[in-house]
Amino acid sequence: xxxxxxxxxxxxxxxxxxxxxxxxxxxxxxxxxxxxxxxxxxxxxxxxxxxxxxxxxxxxxxxxxxxxxxxxxxxxxxxxxxxxxxxxxxxxxxxxxxxxxxxxxxxxxxxxxxxxxxxxxxxxxxxxxxxxxxxxxxxxxxxxxxxxxxxxxxxxxxxxxxxxxxxxxxxxxxxxxxxxxxxxxxxxxxxxxxxxxxxxxxxxxxxxxxxxxxxxxxxxxxxxxxxxxxxxxxxxxxxxxxxxxxxxxxxxxxxxxxxxxxxxxxxxxxxxxxxxxxxxxxxxxxxxxxxxxxxxxxxxxxxxxxxx
Length: 308
Ligand code: GLU
Hints:
This protein is an alpha/beta fold. The protein has 2 domains: 4-85 and 239-306, HUPs (Rossmann fold, 3-Layer(aba) Sandwich); 89-158 and 173-192, Alpha-Beta Complex (Glutamyl-tRNA Synthetase, domain 3). Helices cover 37% and strands 15% of the residues. It is built from 11 helices and 12 strands. The strands form 5 sheets. It has a 3-stranded parallel beta sheet with strand order 1-2-3, with helices on one face. Strands 4-5-8 form a 3-stranded antiparallel beta sheet. α1 (17-32) links the parallel β1 (4-7) and β2. α7 packs across α8 (215-228).
């Protein structure tokens, strides 16, 4: 089967060094196996995503020379390539999950949901098991008359195992480690997990390379793929970039976003910077010999003053 990797940026801000590093590794990986790359815009949240970020992302990737073969801005057979335009595909998957009886309506507020997913220290509790899961049919019908529900997965105590190409052997007990998660919000907006699962599968993505912070999402997505009868991709979760005090570099570090980086670096310099960071995790000497399996899983500590 033809290999395919992907860039899946959220259009909620300018890309920063952390995203860029993951995309760079995803791009090297796809190219190293002779695969294609797809660009998908993750713009589900109508309040936080969209322009001008979408245009910046496309322009910044092009400036750096991280190219893609199909997707946003270039088209291809598996579009549309922004999530906002894919609702009909999510509706179909949602209806299938409903008919399989593996999702349930939930009327908890966001605050109740957060409290349920944060057990007190020492307390043994399944993450996110919510009282709505146990409501009778009659109670559900009565509540639905008053308020539209969100929909959540009813996760079993089942262990999802997979071999991550960077992080190694993984095992997650779904109910304990992941917890029931939102598939569709009460306002009808689909959740990240469902959209990514449907998109990676229908776009024929075979290699998911992204930041390590999404490692446990792979377990949720593999479970969804199993329910929906989709084949599983392979996963590689890239180490994070951390400040010397252990803090994760994030979008809040404005001096590390692409707007700032483009003022201080040429494309070639930024490319060398990314390669330099990667070399801390890998002994390969030239890009042409890159192999994702050689990357070590330790996070990278970055001295900010050395970058800018
Ligand atoms: N859109 C997500 C982000 O920018 C990444 C999703 C994924 O790679 O699965 O953090």
